Each structure stands twice: as C-alpha cells, then as structure tokens.
C-alpha cells in the first residue's frame, strides 16, 4: 500500500514538473554553449537552438564577408532507400525524381491529394537506391503510408545524423584548408563524401543564404570532432558561429521561403483558406505536369486550367528604411490586398525588402498603387506610416560566387 502511494505521488510530481523538462541538445551543443554570450535560445523542433550567439548583426556580416557556421541538426531528416525508392518518391514529389542523378540535390515540395503543399525541402540522391529528405515538418506516418506497396524503407534519421551549414565567401577555402581535398570541384547542388575520423562526412554545395556555401552531414558521434576540424581551419578564414536571426536575414535577401512563416503547411492550417498550392507560393516552376501521377497532380492542373488560383507570393520593395514585417498590404490605401510575412532593410541590396502573400489579382495583373501599413515605435509610442511598395523579382540580388566553380580563393 505504501509503495502504491509513493508511486502515485511520484507520478503527480512528474506531471506538475513537466514544464521543467529541458529541450533536447544537439550533438554540437557543447561548442555552441561555450560561444553563447547572449544566452539567446529558442525551440527548433524540440531542440535548444541559438537565436543569436554574440551579435545578430555582426553574425549576419560574417555570412556575407567571411564564413559562418550554423547548426542544422534539428532539421528533420529521412532516409528513403530500396530498389523502388525512386518510384516511391516519384509518387509523392511534384518534381521529376528520375532526373535527379546520384550525387545531386534538388529543392522540391510535396502536396496532399487536394494539391495543397504539405512542406518543402531538399532531396539528396546519395546513390541509385538511397535518398535523404530534409525538411521542416515531421512526415513519417504520411511517408510510410505513401510507401505502401513499394519495395522501400523509410526511416527518421534526424537524431542519428548531425548537420552543419558553412556559408560565406571563405567557406570553400576553409574546407580545403581543413583537408577536404577536391571540395573546389563541387558544383552547386553537388554532393560528395569525404573521410573523417575513420568514417565519412557528406558535403553538399547547398545552403539557405544565397551565398557560396556548403552543408555537412556526419554521424552524431563524430559531430564534435568535425566542428573542431572546421574551427581550427577557420581561424585564418574568419570563421564565426551564428544563430537563426542572422541566417533569417540572409534567407530573406535570397528570397527563400520558410514553411509556417511565409506559408502555412496543409497539416497545420486551421482555416481552409490558409492552405496554398505550389503556384500560390512561388513553387509552380517545380511542378512536372508531364509526370503521369503524383499526389495533388489533378487538383493542381485543374486549378491552372480553370484559373482558380487565389493567391500569389512575391517580393516587394518598400520606400523608406523601416522594415514592413507583418504589415498589411493595401491597394489604393483602402482595399486589403495581402500580408507581409518577412521583411528587412537589406544591408547588401541597400533596399527595404519584403516577402508578401497577396490575393489575386493584386500582385498578378494589378501591381499598381500598392501600400504597406507599418507601425514603428518612436519614443514609446507607435507611429503609423503608409509606405509605397512595388513588386520586384526574387531573389532580391544574386551573388556570382554562389555558383562559380571553382570558387574564388578569398
């Protein structure tokens, strides 16, 4: 009887203290924690991740002028392999997977049967029969259901594989100095394996900054030794560790979108009018209409044929220098036309830029007389400003070094 009461007490205390449960730490956390002068952490997929480490503005400039190291371990990673892995992925992805050759990566998205985007991400073809899918949301049950009938294995390897993004003009030279011989031969979206600590590290020429950059994937047990190898080589190349705030500035400049920030994924949408088709978030270019079947194909092509697409995601340039983040977009200062999802004053482009979702025909056939409503804090009081906006192409700028092969030796 006493044992039962003690057990019940312990369970009650555990329930009361659930809020004390710490977020998971990534394999690189010991190195990040040692550099975290701001102690500014946030929750990324249940992991403790840095929003900033020392100064988010200087961290941003590390991306653009030297090299920046960002922990991408919390990113969801799936291993999809087997004789029919390509056929299975062909069924679920809007892009033609058959055109993706071993040793290459491409950006893609996938939809539900109604053609609404479930998520976007990068698909790595590591061999003829082995793929890695990296994305924002968790989709294991859906992927397993989609794999029914195919000779394929789907597994979540998020915790098994640690990841780093190394971005910036000195990143190639840094990797070469670290002993990754031949790294300069990788073209944009190429993948290669290199030796590390008796095992291998997979390096792809990819990134989320619009700059020269690479992503490195290694077994979690070898994570710290990989960090130390890069850190030592980066001493003369200006290597700095960064948090998400700096990365977010760079990705906005590059015109990249983030799931559940710039669009709501189909599984997270509470209201029916919040879901989006690929064409409505700027991803229509990747839909391969020649494929005989993939999830959402009929709905997407029907919407195109009938002209029922309701939204459009695009870039805006806003007058002034006050970022228009989360501002309402108006036509003629009166008619609501949409909403800004991300905005910054771009240090590189020297422009006030924004990513916005507008309701058609605004942004589509009507681009005139657009305004954004900005509320700026001035001496503890919000000041309302109406600023003109014009539609501009994304990305907001292009850096030649992102695709130059071999990259220049900075």
From TrEMBL:
<dbReference type="InterPro" id="IPR028896">
    <property type="entry name" value="GcvT/YgfZ/DmdA"/>
</dbReference>
<dbReference type="InterPro" id="IPR006222">
    <property type="entry name" value="GCVT_N"/>
</dbReference>
<protein>
    <submittedName>
        <fullName>Glycine cleavage system protein T</fullName>
    </submittedName>
</protein>
<dbReference type="InterPro" id="IPR029043">
    <property type="entry name" value="GcvT/YgfZ_C"/>
</dbReference>
<dbReference type="InterPro" id="IPR027266">
    <property type="entry name" value="TrmE/GcvT-like"/>
</dbReference>
<dbReference type="Pfam" id="PF01571">
    <property type="entry name" value="GCV_T"/>
</dbReference>
<feature type="binding site">
    <location>
        <position position="215"/>
    </location>
    <ligand>
        <name>substrate</name>
    </ligand>
</feature>
<feature type="domain" description="GCVT N-terminal">
    <location>
        <begin position="58"/>
        <end position="291"/>
    </location>
</feature>
């Amino acid at each position: 009887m006493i044992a039962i009461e003690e057990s019940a007490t312990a369970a009650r205390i555990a329930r009361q203290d659930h809020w004390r449960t710490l977020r998971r730490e990534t394999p690189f956390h010991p190195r990040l924690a040692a550099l975290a002068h701001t102690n500014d952490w946030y929750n990324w997929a249940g992991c403790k991740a840095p929003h900033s480490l020392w100064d988010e503005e200087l961290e941003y400039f590390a991306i653009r002028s030297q090299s920046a190291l960002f922990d991408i371990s919390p990113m969801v990673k799936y291993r999809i392999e087997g004789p029919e892995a390509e056929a299975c992925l062909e069924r679920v992805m809007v892009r033609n997977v058959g055109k993706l050759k071993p040793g290459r990566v491409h950006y893609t998205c996938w939809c539900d049967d109604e053609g609404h985007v479930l998520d976007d991400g990068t698909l790595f073809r590591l061999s003829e029969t082995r793929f890695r899918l990296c994305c924002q949301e968790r989709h294991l049950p859906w992927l397993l259901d989609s794999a029914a009938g195919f000779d394929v294995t789907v597994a979540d390897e998020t915790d098994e594989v640690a990841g780093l993004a190394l971005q910036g003009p000195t990143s190639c030279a840094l990797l070469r100095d670290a002993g990754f011989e031949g790294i300069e031969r990788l073209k944009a979206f190429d993948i290669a394996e290199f030796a590390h600590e008796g095992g291998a590290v997979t390096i792809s020429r990819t990134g989320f900054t619009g700059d020269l950059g690479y992503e490195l994937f290694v077994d979690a047990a070898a994570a710290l030794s990989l960090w130390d190898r890069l850190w030592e080589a980066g001493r003369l190349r200006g290597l700095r560790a960064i948090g998400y705030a700096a990365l977010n500035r760079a990705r906005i400049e590059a015109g990249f979108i983030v799931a559940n920030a710039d669009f709501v994924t189909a599984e997270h949408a509470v209201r029916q009018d919040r879901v989006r088709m690929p064409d409505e978030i700027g991803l229509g270019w990747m839909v391969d209409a020649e494929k005989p079947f993939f999830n959402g194909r009929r709905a997407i092509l029907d919407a195109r044929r009938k002209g029922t697409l309701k939204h459009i995601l695009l870039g805006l340039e806003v007058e002034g220098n006050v970022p228009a983040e989360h501002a309402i977009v108006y036509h003629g200062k009166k008619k609501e036309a949409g909403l800004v999802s991300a905005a910054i004053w771009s240090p590189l482009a020297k422009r006030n830029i924004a990513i916005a979702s507008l309701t058609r025909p605004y942004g589509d056939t009507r681009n005139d007389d657009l305004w954004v409503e900005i509320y700026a804090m001035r001496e503890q009081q919000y000041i309302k400003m109406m600023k003109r906006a014009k539609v501009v192409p994304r990305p907001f700028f292009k850096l030649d070094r992102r695709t130059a092969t071999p990259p220049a030796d900075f």
